[in-house]
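This part of the workshop introduces the protein records we will be handling. To make this concrete, we reproduce a full record directly below.
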Amino acid sequence: MTQTRARFIALWSRSGGARAGDVCADLAQRYAEPARHYHTLQHVRRCLRDLDRARDEIPHPDAVELALWCHDVIYTPGARDNEQRSTNWFRQWADGRIAAGERICEMILATRHTRVPDGLDERFACDIDLAVLGASRNRFRRDGERLRAERPDLDDRAYDLHERDILGGLLARPRIYLTDFFHARCETRARRNLTWRLDLPTPR
C-alpha cells in the first residue's frame, strides 16, 4: 500500500486538495470494507495500470485518475446510488479546492455506464473501468467470482438474471469500448469473454 498511498497523496496534493493523508486513510478504509470482494483497491490499482498505458492519449490524465480513485469509494452491494454517493464523498473532501472537481464528478457518474458520454476524458474513465472485461479468461472468471461474492442477498437464479442483464447489455452495444485506444486493445477479447459467460455462440 505504501507506493499506492504515495501516488494518491501526490495526485491529491498537486490537484489542489488539502489533508491528503486523511483523505487517503478514509479512502483506503472504505475500499477495505468486508462486504467488498471485487470493488477494492485491487480494482483501483488495475485501473491505474491501464490509465498509465493510455496516459499519452488522455486529455487530462490527472483528473481521470482522481475519478478512478474515487469512483467506487462508496459501495453498497445492490445500491443504485453508489456513484452519486461517491461524488458526494469527493466533494466533501475536495471542499472546492480542486479546480477540476465538477468534471471529476461527471467522470465518476459516467462509470454507471448508462449512456455514452460526450467528453473524451469521461470515455477514458469508462473504458478503464471496463478494461478488466478484456483480461485473460482465467482473470475474467476470477473477477466474476468476486462480483458474485458481493451479492449474498441474491440466490443463484436471481444473480444469474442480474448478471445476464448487465453483461448482455454491454455485449449488445455497437462498441463496448468508447475510445479507439481501448477498443483496439480490449474489444475482441471482452466480447469473447462475455459470450462465453452468457453461453452464447462464439462470435467470428
Q: What stands out?
A: The two ends are 42 Å apart (CA to CA). Residues 16 and 191 are 40 Å apart (CA to CA). Residues 2-197 form a domain with the Hypothetical protein af1432 fold (CATH 1.10.3210).
